[in-house]
């Protein structure tokens, strides 16, 4: 009898931005060839859910979505706090991998751009977060910031099939690139970042030039059904 691996909980986020002629592009990353998991593959930013993602300290730093609302959106039997942790994991992994964030000042009720000095300090602390020397709650607390989840839209849920030795139970999200922010060209886990239209990404994968896993292709095909930036916004009500 073959043992079936228990899938680890994970989150993935697809960042989109408008392109020429009312088209849109998605942010993809090529994982470092040195990575044991999917080394060299083209993926969206994301990773495993960590216990700190739904700690009391982290939940105090969440805005725009309650734990109960997160549980309802995911339609899951997970605890409300762990459900909201999926949103936290998506935002944390995005910042760790490409430096894009959805952080807001804790004292403000609406989204405004952070001061340049705050942005610079965040980037200085990003590596410590990525290496586990700093939790996201600690980083946000040090700058009096919170995570704004109102700009993330839940896309779908995928579980790696039973026959794979390593499996993931992944929640996918989509969000517009925040105004004034730029993705890092590379980082500790990322060898390069690319902006592609969903159609171009699908073609590159089918040609064999850009290896992708099936859930990544499913996400691209889902977004490719939105034929324009306007359609995408009408469907998901994205806010940058």
Describe the model:
The chain is of the alpha+beta class and 240 residues long. It has one domain: Nucleoside Triphosphate Pyrophosphohydrolase (Alpha-Beta Complex). It contains 8 helices and 10 strands. Strands 1, 2, 3, 4, 8, 9 and 10 form a 7-stranded mixed sheet that branches. The chain has a 3-stranded mixed sheet with strand order 5-7-6. The N and C termini lie far apart (50 Å).
Instruction: Sketch the topology as an H/E string, one letter per element.
Output: EEEEHEHHEHHEEEEHHH
Give me the CATH superfamily. Nucleoside Triphosphate Pyrophosphohydrolase
Number of helices: 8
CATH top level label = Alpha Beta
The biggest beta sheet, please? 7 strands, mixed
Average pLDDT metric:
93
Low-confidence stretches: none
Rg, Å, rounded: 17 Å
What is the third-level CATH name, the topology?
Answer: Nucleoside Triphosphate Pyrophosphohydrolase
| Strand composition percent | 15-25%
Secondary-structure class: alpha+beta
> Which of globular, elongated, flat, extended, rod-shaped describes the shape?
globular
């Amino acid at each position: 009898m073959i043992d079936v691996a228990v899938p680890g909980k994970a989150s993935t986020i697809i960042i989109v931005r408008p392109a020429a002629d009312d088209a849109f592009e998605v942010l993809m990353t090529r994982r470092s060839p040195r990575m044991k998991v999917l080394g060299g593959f083209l993926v969206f930013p994301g990773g495993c859910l960590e216990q700190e993602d739904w700690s009391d300290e982290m939940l105090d730093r969440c805005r725009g979505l309650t734990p109960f609302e997160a549980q309802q959106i995911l339609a899951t039997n997970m605890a409300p706090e762990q459900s909201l942790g999926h949103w936290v994991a998506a935002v944390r992994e995005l910042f760790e991998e490409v430096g894009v964030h959805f952080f807001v000042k804790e004292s403000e009720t609406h989204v405004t751009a952070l001061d340049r000095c705050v942005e610079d300090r965040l980037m200085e602390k990003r590596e410590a977060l990525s290496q586990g020397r700093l939790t996201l709650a600690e980083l946000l607390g040090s700058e009096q910031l919170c995570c704004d989840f109102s700009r993330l839209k839940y896309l779908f849920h995928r579980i790696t099939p039973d026959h794979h030795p390593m499996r993931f139970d992944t929640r996918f999200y989509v969000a517009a690139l925040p105004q004034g922010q730029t993705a890092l060209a590379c980082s500790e886990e990322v060898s390069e970042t690319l902006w592609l239209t969903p159609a171009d990404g699908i073609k590159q994968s089918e040609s064999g030039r850009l290896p992708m896993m099936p859930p990544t292709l499913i996400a691209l095909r889902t977004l490719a059904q939105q034929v324009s930036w306007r359609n995408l916004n009408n469907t998901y009500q994205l806010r940058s």
